[in-house]
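Ticket #4471: structure export looks truncated?
Reporter: QA, pipeline team
Priority: medium

Steps to reproduce: submit the single chain below to the structure queue and open the exported record.
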Amino acid sequence: MNGNSTAKVRVEAGGRDVVAHVGLHALGAFSDRLGLGDRFSEQVPWTGERAPSHDRCKVLTQAMLMLAGGGEACTDIEALRSQPVLFGEVPSAPTLYRTVRHELTPTVVGDLHAAFAEARAKVWARSAATNTDRPVVLDIDASLVQVHSENKEGTAATYKGGFGFHPMFCFADATGEALAAILRPGNAGANTVTDHLSVLDEAIGQLPADVATGHHDGDDPDLVQRPLLVRADSAGCTHGFVWGCQARNVGFAVAARRAASVHAAISRVAYTPDAWTPGVTQTGEQRPGASVCDVAEHVDLADWPTGTRLIIRREPLHPGAQRSLFPSLNYRFWGHYTDQTGDPVDLDTTMRSHAHVENHIARLKASGLERFPFTDLNANTAWLQLVCWSADLVRWFQLICCHGTIASAAPKTMRWRFWHAPARVVTRSRQRVIRIIDGWPWADAITNAHHHINALT
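Actual output as written to the record:
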């Protein structure tokens, strides 16, 4: 019996004609096919007398590849520099640092946002997840990011006793894209109306023109071509935010907070069996013990936009259940305000899908969000945008070029199965060929992705 977990080999440096990160090359080829680098190049001005040796579009797109591959600091770009066969000339870590620190000013980042929106419109026109006439659902949420240094500008103590940033995001539910992100200090309020509306406006600005039309502040409702719905947890349960949504012709669904009026409304129906309708799961199957009720007629909604409803869901109380809107030994009560029409059960199911936002934030935290490598606030703000752009590029790639489990795989799975696949370099008919090693279980997924990339026009 042999208990060794590895084969006995001799390890030496100096290997030739071998490469790693073959999947990252596919991601870069997809970015090139979208013309993302060219769009970026037009937005970053030269800061010297002559053109830089590395076009800033290449610096940014290769930084996005590095983040997708698991990098979290400028020095991690060196992993790509050793493979010119795949990535050509890759900028050094100091070049990437100088680009983010000195050249990505707030104005430049804003211009890059607009360029990224053009590429997004191109992707949305191709993806079955977005090229529909269904309402576009946006999700807003914030998350704490711990920073272990007091020297970073814009950080502060958090309400959980930590220290760092408290960024706020707005995601597209259908794709998981981070449409907008605002870097805020750790002590920033969770229910700040200004921040909620700012991140919503940035997200609307990232949507294709036919989707965003009619959804800017003060637009005529008749201009709307495609409905928008924004969801938020109880931090978005403020009159300022919901009225701001109405001013943008955007529907809302926000989790309800504990209040005497809500408590009184639930008490009127809590023990009336006929008032409740059986609740369902996300797949439409009946959930045992769950039920839903519209209590709008039992609560004063005079301060809310016309048509606002309060939908309450109750489920059997279980150990460890979170705080309920109504004290009960048998049920946990949870609810949300919304201006949407339709069956309360369907509205409840739609609102509960807001939980997807936790997966979106987890994906960002696994792709560079948990480390801000600069002391300057503007540089860390630009870094946050790079993290979001990288994550969005990966989601586009999965939507358009991948199938099966790879199309929805988490960042760690993508790295293990796809991004870091090894291969051998051969020359055939005066053409350089990358051959994935024999037996790699996901080789077909990589080659199929290249077929999809080549088919893009």
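Status: closed, not a bug. The export was complete when the record was re-opened. Leaving a note from the reviewer for reference: The longest helix spans residues 377-401.
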